[in-house]
Amino acid sequence: MYERSAELFRVAQEFIAGGVSRNTLLREPHPIYAARGSGCRIIDVDGVERIDYSNNMAALIHGHCHPAIVAALADQLGRGTAFTMATEQEIDFARHLCGRSPTFERVRFVNSGTEAVMAALKAARAFTGRARFAKVEGTYHGAYDYAEVSQSPGPQNWGRPDRPASVPLAVGTPGSVLHDVVVLPFNDPADAIAILDEQRDEISCVLLDPMPHRLGLVQAEESYVAALREWTRRNGALLVFDEVITYRTEVGGMQARYEAEPDLTALGKIIGGGLPVGALAGRQAVMAVFTSVGGPPRLPHSGTFSANPLTMTAGLAAMSLFDEESVERLNALGGRARAGLEEAISTAGVSACVTGTGSLFRIHLRANPPRDYRSLFLTPEAATTLRLFIDGLYDSGIVMIHTGTGALSTPMEQADIDRLAEATLASLRRIKPRLLAGESASDPRDGS
Ligand code: PMP
Fold it and tell me: Which pTM does this prediction carry?
C-alpha cells in the first residue's frame, strides 16, 4: 500500500537532512508522499485516495484546487509573481481583512505564521520599549527562538505548576532568550497574574492562542482572557492573539467570541488560499511602529516575498469565498463531525473524548479532555496507541493530523463526515484491546 512512498523516503534521505523539511510529516516507518489533491481528497504516490482532514495542518479552508482560486492564480501567474514594487493586490486583500474584524485597523503581510508571530513580538517590543513577553506553557507559535520557549517541556524540567520554568526547545538556545520569555499556566488566571505581577514593568505583551492545538484544542476561558486583558491594559503591555489556526472559527476569528479584544493578531494558514502566508493585524496606534514619519520606523520591517501578488490573489479569492454563510455551514458540519465521533466512541465502548470548536476537532484517547499541556502529556505507551489509531485512520482512507486533530474544508459534505465516523469506529475497535489493557491510552492523571 505504501511501496512508492517507502522508496521515495529512502532516496530523500540521501539529499534532504532528515528526509523532509518539515518534521510534522514524519511517520513510522516513513512519510506518505502526496501525488495530487482535489477538493477534500488527496491521492498518494501509490494511488490511494483518502479524505483529507489534515488540510496541510489546517491551512486549506477550501481543500485542494478550488476552481475559483486556481483561476485567480492562473490569471496572476501570467502577469508576474513578485516585483520590487508595491501592488494593488496587497491593498485589496488588506482592505478585505480589515473589514472582517474590528480589531484589524491596519495589517502587514509576511510569508508564514512563524514570521507573523515574530513580527507581533517585535512590534510589542518596539511599541512598549520592553524586551520580555509572556506565553502559555506548551503552546506552539512557530519557529522564532522566543516563541519556541517551553513549547515541549517535560516533567524533568517543567518546574512547579504555578511557576512554569522557561525551557529551551533547541539545543543551544541562548540563556538570554529563556530569560526574556515568561511562561504562564493555561486557564489559571490567579497564578498567571501572580507571575506577571512579579515582572510588571518588563513585559511587552502576553501572547495567547485562544484554543491552543498542543494543549488539546481546549478553549481559553473567558475569565482567563479577561484577566490577561485587564492586566496588560493596567500595566502598559499588549495582548497579542495567535489566530494562525483559530481564525477559521468565525469570520473575524475566534476573538469575536470574547468580550476582550487583542491589540494585535498573528494570522497565517487559511488566509493564504493555499500559498505560504502570514499577517499581523491590529490597532492602528500599535501598528504605527512600522510607519516612518520623518525618520526611521520604530520597527524596520521587510521581506523579499512579503505580500507577493500570488499570495495576495489566492488569499483574497479564498477569504472572499469564506464568508459568513460559508463559515456557518462549515461550523455546522464541524459540529456534526464532533457528534459523529462521539457516537463512534460510544459504540466502540472505549474511553475517549472529542474537543474543538467550529471546523476543528480533536480526538483524545482518554475519558476527559485535558486541561492544559501537563495534563495532556502522553506516556510513551499512550503515544504509541495514538500513533496506531492514526495509522488505522489512514488505512481506512482518512488523513489526519498526527495528534488526532482534524480540520474540515468547504468541499466536504455529510458523506465525508460519515466516512470519518466509520473509520474512527474501525480504528478504535482495532486499538480497543490496548486501551482496555490500560497499556495505556489514558494518561495517569486522567480524570483528576
Ligand atoms: N502559530 C500557530 C498557532 C500555529 O499552529 C502555527 C503552525 N502550525 C504557527 C504559529 C506557525 O505557522 P507557520 O508554520 O506558517 O510558520
Answer: 0.97
